[in-house]
Amino acid sequence: MAGSSQTEPNQDQTAAPLGVSAMSDEFVKCPHAYYQSALSTAPVFQDQETGMYWIMRHDLIKQVAKDTETFSSRIDVIADVYKDGMDPEVAEIRGGGVTRIATLLTQDPPEHRTYRDLVNMTFAMDKVLAMRPYMAEIANSLIDEFPKDGPVEFISAFAAPLPVTIIADQLGVPRERADNIKDWSDAIVDLLGQVGDREHQIDCARRERASSDYLFSEVERCRKDPKQNIISDLCTLTYHPLDGEPRPLNDEELISILTQLMVAGNETSTNTIAGGMWYLAQDPDLLAQLRDGDERTMKVFVEEILRIWSPNQGQFRRTTRDVDVEGVIIPKGAMVHLRYGAGNFDDSVFTDPETIDLSRPKPRQHLTFGTGIHTCVGAPLARQEILTGFQVLLDRFNRFELAEDPADLSVHRHYNLRGLTKLHINCIE
What we know:
Layout: E1 2-3, H1 25-29, H2 32-41, E2 44-46, E3 53-55, H3 58-66, E4 71-72, H4 88-94, H5 111-120, H6 125-130, H7 132-144, E5 152-153, H8 154-159, H9 161-171, H10 178-192, H11 198-224, H12 230-236, H13 251-264, H14 267-280, H15 284-292, H16 295-309, E6 315-319, E7 323-325, E8 328-330, E9 335-338, H17 340-343, H18 379-396, E10 399-402, E11 424-428
Helix pairs in contact: 4-11, 7-9, 7-18, 9-10, 10-11, 10-13, 11-12, 11-13, 14-16, 14-18, 16-18
């Protein structure tokens, strides 16, 4: 990559190589063939539908992620993704309540590190490993409620409540509010993914506002009566800003961090668990390999599902100057989409990327949790949730079968995330 004084993009490179809208049913159901075709012809291009510049190749995504001076994360990851601006009523609703500020996902160095250091300890590996029996207990309790005869709707019965219950417990939110966490998270990611019509977006904005109001009330409660949970920890920790004296985090910082932990703490795990089951229920040989293998085999399976399903299809940046990426001039101020889902199918990194390979070397090279300073802070927790979930499922059942036609695969029409809306499975003991 190199700087450039040009301000007009290379028009020969801006024709969308996907050949289909990134929000179309055919693309969201299975984008893999589109990615493989586009990677070989135009690893950088401008998506005319959104105006964003996609970076698709694995090595380019990593390069861009490292160049935080040129590709800034200081954006509103919801409002700024709309090509023609967010609907005024949606923006007005979102503007109420606690003011949003840049902390983790939307902050650049050096300020980013001051916030990241506060939450790193929350998801330290030793803490996550100690949670395995607790996670297994939740997974078993969910399976106990599966119907005794007939199929189970796997997402609402297992893939969603497992991580939602865990993040609710870790935050210190009562379990009876776990459904609210899922509802609020879905609303926020729908806004991020430009999902639905105006009325749906207004409803999502109201639900997002409700989540902020609730988290603020929990912050107030934990300040007065701290417990052993993440909200209390963040309320009592000392923050060391670069431009002032050490102090507690303020309301805006707390709500920003907690909202990100709430959303990231369930969406990736839910969509990966559901995607993994969709594959297992159609591939008896894959299931047999898992049964014949050891824990490392299961860990590779988790990484392969994270890669091949790519529940987080990408992340956004804004350019601070004109920049040349592979011959495409991206002008200053442009929105850039690091398309992790495409990078995860780059055959220069992953041999036979469309195959779940339980012997794949370096299985963690995928980009699903991001790369660089914004690698997901909750990745250790998500990996353990997915691993424990499948271990318990394989302990409790001999095999799994789809209870619906694979052609009826129902996937959210979302620009940034990939997840099933429903999945009916027969679980056979």
